[in-house]
Amino acid sequence: MNLDDFDRQLLAEVEQASSPTVAALQSRKRYLQGNGSEEQIKRRKTQAQARDQVPAPSFNLRHAPPMARGIQLVCTSQMPDRVSAIFPYEILNAVQSKCFPVAFESNDNLVVSAPTGSGKTVVMELAICRLVMETRNADFKVIYQAPTKSLCSERYHDWSKKFKLLGLDVAELTGDTSNDHLRQVQQARIIITTPEKWDSITRKWRDNRRLLDMIKLFLVDEVHILKDSRGATLEAVVSRMKSIGTQVRFIALSATVPNSEDIAAWLGKSPEQSTQPARIEVFDESFRPVRLEKHVYGFQYGNNDFSLDNHLRKQVPDMIIKHSKKKATMVFCMTRKSALQTAQTLAEAWRNSERHQLPWPAPRQIIVVGDTVLRDTVQAGVAFHHGGLSVEDRHAVEQGFLQGFITVICSTSTLAVGVNLPCYLVVLQGTTTWATNAMQSYSDLEVMQMLGRAGRPQFEQSACAVILTREQHVSRYQKMVSGQELLESTLHLNLVEHLNAEIGLGTIRSMALAQKWLASTFLRVRVMRNPGHYQLEETNSHVGTDEMLQQWCEKDIQALLHANMVEDSGRLKCTELGDAMAKYYVNFDTMKIFTAIPPKAKLREILSALTRAAEFSEMRLRSGEKSYYKELNKKSEIMFPVNVDIALPEHKVSIILQAELGGASQPDGENFRKHHQQHSTERLVIFSHANRLIRCIIDCQIYMKDSVSVRNALELGRCIAAKVWDSTPRQLKQVPEIGDVLCRKLASQGINSIEKLLAKEAYQIEMAVGKTQPFGTRLLAKLQSYPRLRVSIKEMGREIKRGHGATLRLRVDVGFLNTKTPTYFHKTPVYVCFVVEDSNGNLLDFRRFSAGKLESEPILLSAVAEQPLTHVGCSVMCDEIVGTAMHAELKVSGIPDAVFPAGIKSRPGPRDVDHPAIQKASQVATAFDDDDIEDADLLAATEPQ
């Protein structure tokens, strides 16, 4: 076969291909390499033509790109050399080529709806390349938004290498972000983030318009998550970016959905033509690189998900025999235990099969693993995979599957992301999973990610996916996998929280602007198309769609005004309470609980308000848990036992929190051990919310100027951060190398605080805990960075005006006793809180600063006293580090009662806390800013160098 014959054959193959890829060109290159250079081949061909005198037609791919499904494929050489270099192939596939004119040759917004694996990501890369060519060296930023951290991480690693060729730095902003991490954004042109993270960051940008002006391209991956619970945040963020009025271009990628035109209507064609829909390209399942055969089977069995799971497990062997063709298979199970049990079931079914009728081949090699159960199942070519396995066993299973030594993997849904293990058959053994504290259905995104594991384009052209679910859910999943499930908005479900955030940002300044903002949302598009889906009980079902939206706005804004989250003085704006609600992502119902905390609240009352937060409403007692938590509630380490029948989520949350802070051991015994794992899982969830919620409580109490509540909330906040009670010897656990055992030994020797530990010599510490040298020396060395604060207060003068009270001029000296400023303690950044109060419990001053910014100069302040008082107190403490608080007190006398406004009498000093071991030094600390990122740092970090 000569080169012309090859080109003809290649064109024929490409024309027939459902999704042309670089594989054809790679085959052509292999042909050239095996037969000499192209010049040599042409020379031989010319000689043959001369001998035969029969001219043969020739074709050069460079001059006539092939067609696929009626789409002319685009060669990357059509782009300027500067940007074409990032594409490692010579030709774009059909999906990419069809989108090329809009993505690379225009600035219009674009919506692409195409199957998984069809190459949609390249469309976003084309848009970035256009921006690079247009802006040259101008300042710009690109935002890429994906729904999961794993997708963001995958994109970050890919684009960091790819766009380095264009001199573009890429930064990832997901989950925990420190100041150090945020500074990477300073050089980054491309920022990769999640909707929640971008929402959190942009909520800080109230007055920093130039930051938003730098954003020129906004890329939304997996935009079909709009219909999931998290979709409201995505919708709010995109609508925010639209309503700001900046010149932002939007590219949105979606799986196959029937109403992608609604997304296009929402985004608009461009900022100048927002009433016209965005450009849209829709590709059906035939463009999937590997044809995916999908089956949904319904079963009606049992009253709960666990009994159904047991029933479905028995169906899996037959499903594999029916659909796998004895090829690589992945079974997704709802829990770790379920994955293990399914692997055992399949291994047993394989062993019971006749040798000539094995459902999959016998393993060519037995992999080496440590887990005893896994060691048994791999003998049958079956493995299970989840986070409970050792890293070594997980790696062995992954490699064994890739090498063909394992044919079937049973896993939890986490394996659907992060690890590239494609297979022929995917089986979903049920459509629910255990998430944090309850069974819940997989999100659509999770389902599609799991199904996306089916298909190995390097091995075959087809794959199969099987979903096993309850009978009543069959129709829904059939619509989902066939791309026929309509996208609906979820913004209306928590509209009040998003309205509050937009008012705080200044996006909404009036009722009219609120309606305008709502009109820019996907919710409005869908309400117009499908109003019946959004009817709420509070609205008049006979009104039109725009009137209904107006009613929603008015109702929610009135609720915010009534709750003092928002004020209207000719312009809507957030109060400090509304700012706290937006800043800490707090549910509106939770804010109403927090603002109802009684004056001078005790620690117990602060804890009670925290545990009643709506964010914990799903922490319900499950079957058999009541006796477990009753037993745990009896432990002496529970500082505030629940004194009523344990029945509500708040009771459970309170006991779990206190058990951790007090170091209470979990109840033992056969009936209790089965709850240990769930207790541990829910503890993580509770603490992830508690740190954020207690910060909100602190901000609310600062606004109320209630110093007693502030100090008690600070104390609880710091205890939650350190995960120990401040007033107990467990504060020693903050020290590296001191665990529960050493903590008890030290306490038995009278060393029950870090201050007392610091006062000991190394040999005394070693004697107390039964250790040898140099343990004590090493421990004391680590304690050199433990913050040791000092504080003093002095009156410098006073101004007295009859009927108006007294103004005290105060000097406060704050500093560290450490020889070197402790900016970090055991990897924890040191922040200092500064609280000044009078004897009546009125907050006079509050400040927070990093250890490095704690100046050696004194703090000068004026404190206005409008009531008779006996003293002024000043407390300083470190965030998240217990045992650091110090207190100073200034006695105040000589101010006649007649100086103060009439009718105000002196009140006795409040009780500080309501638990034993009250120390003179009020011990409080917490953190306030989201991610500890100051607005000034955020501003600097997002500006180019």
Automatic annotation (TrEMBL):
GO terms for biological process: meiotic cell cycle. Residues 34-61 are annotated as: Disordered. Residues 101-275 form the Helicase ATP-binding domain. It is an enzyme of class 5 (isomerase). Its EC number is 5.6.2.4. Keywords: ATP-binding, Helicase, Hydrolase, Isomerase, Meiosis, Nucleotide-binding. GO terms for molecular function: 3'-5' DNA helicase activity; ATP binding; hydrolase activity; nucleic acid binding. It comes from the Eukaryota. SMART domains: DEXDc, HELICc, Sec63. It catalyses: Couples ATP hydrolysis with the unwinding of duplex DNA by translocating in the 3'-5' direction; ATP + H2O = ADP + phosphate + H(+). Residues 315-503 form the Helicase C-terminal domain. Belongs to the helicase family. SKI2 subfamily. This is DNA 3'-5' helicase. The lineage of its organism: Eukaryota, Fungi, Dikarya, Ascomycota, Pezizomycotina.
